[in-house]
Task: structure prediction
Amino acid sequence: MMWRFCSNYGFMGGNFWLPIVALLVLVVIFSSLVFALTSKTSSAKKILDEKYANGEIDWETYQTRRHNLRN
Result:
């Protein structure tokens, strides 16, 4: 019985795995983009924090740039 169901075209005509694989690919792409964006922002914030801590920029400049990083 089972062999007749799966014999010619695989499980459900072979179209069963296509949406699952496409969804997995989209999840991987989306998660890698989110990770890349957050790591860049985090890196920029660290550099900004270091510049303020070293006295290279003043408080107003620090706040303005920090606000710009968030947006």
